[in-house]
Amino acid sequence: MNATMRKVVIGTTAVSMALAVAACGKAGDNKKSESTSSGGKTSIGLLLPDNTQTRYEQFDRPLFQAKVKELCSGCTVEYANANADAAKQAQQVSSMITKGVKVIVISAQDSAAIKSSIQTAVNKGIKVVAYDRLAQGPVSAYISFDNVKVGDLQGQALLTSLGSKATKKSKVVMINGDDADPNAAQFKKGAHQALDGKVDIAYEQSGLWKDTVAAQKMSAAITQLGAKNIAGVYSANDSMAGGIANTLKGAGISGIPLTGQDAELAAIQRILAGSQSSTVYKAYKPEAEGAATLAVDLAQGKSISSLATETLTSGSGDKVPSQLLTPVSVTKANIKDTVVKDGLYTVQQICTSAYAKACAAAGLK
């Protein structure tokens, strides 16, 4: 190679390196959460299922985004919410593929319906992490809580609240989650393990994770069983518990146990006020940050064996490396030592004027 040619090659290489460094710096400095992948070295997609459950927008999304930024200054996060629409989520996966993301983290609105979309993404060389719900298809990793344990905790909390009324003749209403969500079946399994043979599950329906549907089902249960004959209510999550609590109040029913899940602020306040007896706290921070860590490691070609130490089988028969976290039952007695201690909510957020007396009685100051 002659001297002139060497100068041209060296100059071209220097310009290319400078552009690459500039691009990385731009991605790292980008403060927008929905940034495109064109200016960044690594783009990660986050797809959440709905915004009816307050946890996703209030906690999961910002915690995930912050952890990705911490772990990978050159990474950007593409975000979309399905708004409880499975078809829309499939379109969002296609959009992520078009944008060139390296990893998709998805909490499936419908675990079976999303299978073909996941397969398409994997065929394009994209890694997929199932978040909170075990989606079907060739996902690379799954992170969630021990969902059978969640149901068991709910059932045990209901029995504890019933006390001496927990008999085989005591009629309990059971409002489960959406059958399209594989977690719903696991919550249901755990709850039945705790309740079967100890109480009479006299009415059982799906509330589809919607407060309005759960309220309608509760109203039907009251009509069928009679207001005075209902000893307690199992609700699979807090959103539905809110609708159920309103229906119970409207029917003049008070003082009976009502379970929940997700430790929503409104649920914590209902527990203090006595219209809900318990919830299950699944700490959002370790779950969201764990998902971010898995995503970044997969994007960078690192092993995840030290993180995903268990193997679960999805509905499609795929063996999935999994990371399962431990849920915690929350009642009035341990609000301070759980959601307040972890900084999920401050006492000021919980103890608004409407709940001041209840907070004082519970020792929340």
Care to describe what's here?
The protein is of the alpha/beta class and 365 residues long. Helices cover 46% and strands 18% of the residues. It has 13 helices and twelve strands. It has helices at 3-29, 54-71, 86-99, 115-123, 147-162, 182-195, 211-225, 238-250, 265-273, 284-299, 336-340, 347-350, 356-362, and strands at 42-48, 75-81, 103-106, 127-131, 141-145, 171-176, 200-206, 230-235, 279-281, 310-313, 319-325, 328-330. The strands form three sheets. A seven-stranded mixed β-sheet has the order 2-1-3-4-5-11-10, with helices on both faces. A three-stranded parallel β-sheet has the order 7-6-8, with helices on both faces. Strand 6, helix 6 (182-195) and strand 7 form a beta-alpha-beta unit. Helix 3 runs parallel beside helix 4, helix 5 runs parallel beside helix 6 and helix 7 (211-225) crosses helix 8 (238-250). The longest helix is centred in the first third of the chain and has 27 residues, at 3-29. The radius of gyration is 24 Å and the shape is globular. The N and C termini lie far apart (78 Å). The model is unreliable at 1-39 (pLDDT under 50).
Strand order of the largest sheet: 2-1-3-4-5-11-10
Largest sheet: 7 strands, mixed
Helix content: 40-55%
Cα-to-Cα separation, first versus last residue = 78 Å
In one word, what is the shape?
Answer: globular
Structural class by secondary-structure content = alpha/beta
The proportion of strand residues reads 15-25%
Q: List the secondary-structure elements in sequence, H or E.
A: HEHEHEHEEHEHEHEHHEHEEEHHH
> How many strands in all?
12
Q: Uncertain spans, ≥5 residues at pLDDT below 50?
A: 1-39
Mean pLDDT: 90
Number of helical runs? 13
Radius of gyration (CA) equals 24 Å
